[in-house]
Protein: SLC13 family permease
Organism: Micromonospora parva
Amino acid sequence: MKLAAVAPPATPEPTTRWRPHPLDLVAVVLAVVGATCALSGLLPRAETTATLHRILPLLLFLGTVIVLAELTAVAGVFNVLASRLAIASRGRWAALFLLCGGLATLTTLVLNLDTTAVLLTPVLLALARTLRVPAGPLAVTTVWLANTASLLLPVSNLTNLLAADRVGLAPLTYATRMALPQLVAVAVTMALLWFTWWRRDQPTGGRFVPPAAHVPADPVLHRTALAGCLLFIGGILAGVEIGLASTVALALVLVGFVIRSPATLRPGLVPVRLLLFVTGLFLVVQTLGRHGLDDLVGTLLGADGDALGALRAGGTGALLANALNNLPAYLAGESVLPGGDATRLLALLIGTNVGPLAAPWASLATLLWFERCRAARVTVPVTRFVLTSTLLAVTGTLGAVGALLLVS
């Protein structure tokens, strides 16, 4: 009698254990420490309430704009824009570099740096996938110019609004004062972008094959998401509070997805990690300010009001931004500088705008950029990014502060 072959038992597939991302752990630790500071009395209740009241609009903006970007990416808006950008460059790598850099600069100047980080980063990441080129140069373009191109107008950066109000400058006067520093900061950024990222990773012969125009899978969702983005941008240009603009835009896009693709909507779209991180960061920094940070900042800034004092202010802003975050760094420096010292206040602003590049928490735009890269599963070489970003932070801050001294 012939026996039938018995198949060996199937080997069970190994289960993949969930491991938290390092930034998840940082966010949780910051949130716990911040809550401890508030509940223990290290940060008085009145200051805790004031801090939370101040950051609630920021948290609303963060939560809504990231979900907006996620859904916009699903709708194919970024793929369409990326393909058109590549077609416009006619297959020339250098032309693509100038187009991407110019678009990032314009977006940051006219809208603000967070818009560049959230909405433009996915465009360039989609472009890298379409062209099958390394994503690093295109990704770094958005985060660098989101920070360094945010000096010219008060609306370009929240810190600009704080600085313009403190020194009493009208928007036009402020822009005139910061025009040369802005030009220098962008020039330094573009030069370093080309020589440290774009030229090194350019395709053979500096040319690529332009792709065909991308056709979205669901034209109705595509048009709805595009309308949401345009509504968001229009709201910012009209002076609508940024959290309100992002909320209304997201509401429109959500309606489209509820009707056309409800399965896309899931709790994981909400950036819980980032919200915990920002809340904890502000509470911790506010507590540190009461217990010695303000004194340390005063020592770093010194009492000199001349060119050396301006350079110290810019350097202190950049250093603290990378150690903490640029917004609390600016607030800490502003609190110890006299209101009439416009040059040092603007130098501090330059340091907190141009300098926060080396650390992922250094600015809100950098945090948003990391989130966009993570969502797109794009990994930028860490060592190369930190080294080149530190070089830009130093040279960009020095160049922009020097330009400020020329027009002061």
In short: The chain is about 75% helix and 0% strand. The first helix runs from residue 22 to 40. The radius of gyration is 23 Å.
